[in-house]
Amino acid sequence: MSTITGEQTTTTTVEASEEVKAIHRKMRRRQQLGRAGTYVVGILLSLWILLPILFIASMALTTRETVRAYPKGILPFIPFSMDTLNFFLNSQGIIPGLINSLIVAAITLVLSTAIAAPAGYAISRYFFRGRDAYRLSILAVRAFPIVILAIPLAVVFINVGIYDSPYSLALMHTALALPTTVLVIGSVFASIPYELEEAAMVFGCTPWQAFRRVILPLVLPGIAAAAIFTFVLSWNEVFAASVLTVRERTLPAQVLNALGSSSQAYQFAGGFFMLVPALVFIFFIRRYLFNMWGQVTK
Amino acid sequence: MFQALGLAVWDDDRLLALLQEPQRDSESSGRLPQGAQVAILDRQGNELSPEDTGEANLLTERWFLVSGEDETGAAVEGWTSESRIRVRQEADDGSPLGGTVRPRLGADADEFTNLYAEANASSEVVARLLERTEVSIAQTVTLEVWYQVQGQMADGEEVSGWTPSRFIQVFSDETSGRIDRGNTGQFTLDYIRTMVNDRFFMPALRTTLLLMVIIIPIQFVLSVIMALVIQARLRGNSLFLYIFAIPLGISDLAVGIVWFSIFTQNGFLNSILQNLGLIDAPITYLSAQTRHWILIAIVLAEVWRATSIVMVIVVSGLQAISQEVLEAAELFGATLWQRIRHVILPLLKPSLQVALILRTILALQVFAVVIALSGGDVVTVLANETYRQYNEFRNANVAAAYAALILLLSMISAAVYLRLIRTQEEVVA
Q1: Mean of the per-residue pLDDT values of chain A
Q2: Which of A295, B193, B256, B279 could make an SS bond with B369 (beta carbons 3.0 to 4.6 A apart)?
Q3: CB-CB contact of B248 with A289 (8 Å)
Q4: Which of residues 254-273 of A touch B (CB under 8 A)?
């Protein structure tokens, strides 16, 4: 503590008593222990998540004999080989299944983003009657079990004549993905204050120009993240794909179908192959995941 | 929800709609129940689409496009039934090329045979041919026989109308038959009854509820711990975030396969135990005799996969808790456990509500993990039964009944959570 008296400055320091110093030390140590403990817990949890992925990867990137061998070696990836993965990719129906999965996921991405973006914008910007009810109903639809959607839809598709086609499956996946996408894009728009648009319009932009030049660059990352998540959702979807496709199966439906009668090499390679896109995509969109469950309006 | 139940019990096999005219888009004149005895009044051929040819009870008749000379000597062409033509020349592959018009038997039988504009006895008559006229056959077409039947409806009223032969079981005398199956539905509880009596129903229901009760508390605790680790914002937080969020993007089938590779007989769990010297021979975990191990494997797989979803919700809820409150608590000497219990958890209630509801509803749909770990027979859950009924037994109605049950359970649990957590808040307030 320093006091200024006239032109002379005297600094007086208060020496903490021994007791207070001891408490400070204890608090600091507790803090450090707390941090170390958190690190330990974090690392343990990370291992819990990463080890199974490591296991399956080492099974998929090795020879088929190693897959059958017992006991498996402690060190993974010995021997390293593309044998199992090749075997899987060349198996019956895998490449077509891959193509179908890509088609379905791509169509779902485009459709759901195109439909959800305006909805998200409206929900975040405009106060219309029934807005709260609309938001609640979107949440309710998201919680809707996919099984209750898939079975009657299969019957309808058969009657209409669009059963067993990647395009109709894409419709179903879009319906699945829409609630999440609308809410994510809504929260992305909500995080950008309307004042920016107003400012742009004050400076002479039309509303559309204000949107295009000011808002769009800011929301594009969020919308891209939502689109990627929709892609992953469609890529991973198993139940509806198995019910709604017979000959034009997507990859998960194909693997599920062959699960009972296939060798372990096939299964492990299949599991690994379906897993890899997740590793890549989640890396890119991890920051945006938290918007998906939060409030739409600030 | 009533609609969903309606879908579940829509009976596809009960009533047959009779039509006023022998045409597909004609109006209905009445409905007859399955099994009703009918008298056959008339018959007529109607077009048949190729994919219907395999149907049971389908009676067909062939019609020929014939050309010949009528009694004035003019060349005429038209359709007539195969029963009116006696085929005398055939091509190498058996298709008819030519023949003569059959005479009708009986004293006052009509000696002329009609030729029609289309292969349909109710279309316009374009010509009439004398019996025994020579004709050449240009085309053949197969038609489905339609019957005009008369029978009694459920309330005793007599009704008559046309129907395709595939829905009628014709007795040998061709003047009487029985409705074999229908084409319109009626409300019935039969499929729910079938579902409840299905031998997989109780095991599936029990296993599903058991899994829910075990998995959700574990995930609740684990996700809060994960969220707190993220929230602590240590160095390398970004890496933790990425790793914790990875399972979000993994399909449940892939997760099932991953954990299968661990628990299978020559899998990793046994390998590690063997390499550590703890066991001598591989233990079988995933067999019919070790149901509890299969359940443990399913619990582990589901916890591994779906905790991320709950964690993400909890983290966004944690971010909403202001730091000042936590600091104040720490200042007043609260230990970590006390801070969690009295400050963080109550403030997390809305997020936990959302997370629990979502997770419960998703838990009811666990499907591919169970199939990957147990083949769907030893251990089964409701979603698996839905799939089995649809795919193996080809019974969309019972599958829909299972789906409706899942919906019912989802809504009940959502309502329970909303009530439970809200009531506590009101009590505190």
Answers
A1: 80
A2: B256
A3: yes
A4: 255-256, 259-260, 264, 267-268, 270-272
